[in-house]
Amino acid sequence: MSTTLVIIPTYDEAENVRPIVARTLAATDDSVHVLVVDDNSPDGTGDIADAIARETDRVHVMHRTVKDGLGGAYLAGFAWGLEHGYDKLVEMDADGSHHPEYLPWMLELADSNDLVLGSRWIKGGEVENWPWYREMLSRGGNLYTRLALGIAVRDATGGFRVFTSRAFERIDLAGVASKGYCFQVDLCWRALEAGLRVVETPITFTEREFGVSKMSGNIVRESLTLVTKWGIDRRLRELRSLVKDHRRLPSVRKNAHAVADHTG
């Protein structure tokens, strides 16, 4: 039986961790487990997660003493999940912005794809309770990412996604340097460059009700800098390949596509 690990990084999510774990368990069957990766939250999030884990063997907790960003937490979760033999690994926020009720459909898509992206910016996707400037920032960032990298993915910055374990056999996780939200673009870019099959499916993203967003100007600047660097590097490699070998690099567009949700 295929098994799935939903990785939920937390830092000061005491009000959110129990509701999101409960919704995840209710939306899925017993083959789906949850790993809460807590970065030593001072508000007691880790203790709450431990209490949940004592109530059910479907929930596990990792306590980290270092806080090195969202990317570091996910990389630690991926390593734990692969070590424990899970077939699918899910990224999902703790704050309720990602609806776990989409998981059954996303996991079904992962049966025939390597990476499934929950997308806000394809037909059928939407955001709730965002001010106009947040939407413009996200749409603009994704537009710049598509242009800089030459990709077709509409929502490369989204954080609700499913990887298959076989995908990680072809993605160089050891080389991932980005730790903030650009981590999402980094993994999507690596998947496309590796020729993996990437699919987007529409989701509704809901702004958090409790707690404070970790988005900052430094995160935006890191993303723009790294995406620009990756795009330039790609074009230089393309030029070298054309001059030296008289051939183009494999397409980073052809393996990405969008699908309707299960109700469409």
From TrEMBL:
The record's section on Gene3D superfamilies has: Spore Coat Polysaccharide Biosynthesis Protein SpsA, Chain A (3.90.550.10)
Q: Mention any Pfam family matching this sequence.
A: Glycos_transf_2
Keyword Transferase present in the record's keywords: the answer is: yes
Q: Which UniProt keywords apply?
A: Glycosyltransferase, Transferase
Residues of the Glycosyltransferase 2-like domain: 6-171
Family indicated by similarity: Belongs to the glycosyltransferase 2 family.
Report what the protein is called. Answer: Polyprenol monophosphomannose synthase
**Provenance organism:** Curtobacterium caseinilyticum
**Top-level taxonomy:** Bacteria, Bacillati, Actinomycetota, Actinomycetes, Micrococcales
